[in-house]
Amino acid sequence: MSKPLKYRHELKFFINQHQFYIIRQRLKSLMKQDENVGPSGEYHIRSLYFDDISNKALHEKLGGVRDRLKYRIRIYNIQDNVIHFEKKIKRNDFIAKVKEPLSRDMYEAIVAGNFEVLNDPDKPLFMELYHEMNHNLLRPKVVVDYIREPYVCYNGNVRITFDKDLRTGLHSVDIFNKEMDPVRAIDNNLIILEVKYDEYIPEYIRAALQLEGLHRQSASKYVICRKFLKFNTWEDY
User: Which neighbouring-strand residues pair with 32?
Assistant: First the structure.
């Protein structure tokens, strides 16, 4: 029996370097850093996003469809000890995530077009992906690459992340490619602030963030990075 989905609030903002330093300084005394960070207080994330033959995920996001989903394979610090195939689900202003671990061999098979490794009836996400790849031609589209500085708080299960140096792998779809030289996807001065929580944000964290002074954005990393792969002049996103 599959686990019920846990939906969470997700807010996204573009902030500049000055705002980043101020907000981070306030949060440091109120929240703990994620236990997975390295000595710099950060870790590296690289994701391979998938879309189908009609680019459904891309067009639904651009079209403002409120209920939608995305598929991606994610790794950390360009290591293969943790590889997950993830399905991110958005319902109105709430998000949920379903994921399954992959071995490096499974990853290599999927990227090479051998989808039989996903034909596992005991794993619903794999069977869903297997169907999408065979019937809707779900395929790798773009690599999204960035540095994350994360903070967590038990009260409200709040997670606040600063995502920096957003880059795209352009036409390379191998996240382990050592020759990949990702190119910057947004302005040097911009950082993506993400705020995720369950039922509430503690008032002391809300006061530190001063969210009312920030401009909320959709800030889809997938869409931002896909714009570098335009083949037609009408693809103005």
Answer: 152
- Report pLDDT digits (tens) over 3-15: 678 899 999 999 9
217, two tokens = 């954005």
pLDDT tens digits along 35-88: 989 999 999 999 999 999 999 999 988 888 888 999 999 999 999 999 999 999
Cβ(24)–Cβ(16) under 8 Å? no
Rounded distance between C-alpha atoms, residue 52 and residue 140, angstroms:
9
Token digits of residue 105: 């061999």
What is the full DSSP assignment across the chain?
-PPPP--EEEEEEEEEHHHHHHHHHHHHTTSEEPTT--TTS-EEEEEEEEE-TT-HHHHHHHTT-SSEEEEEEEEETT-SSSEEEEEEEEETTEEEEEEEE--HHHHHHHHTT-GGGG--TT-HHHHHHHHHHHHS--EEEEEEEEEEEEEEETGGGEEEEEEEEEEE-TT---TT-TT---EE-S-TTEEEEEEEESS---HHHHHHHTGGGS-B----HHHHHHGGG--STT---
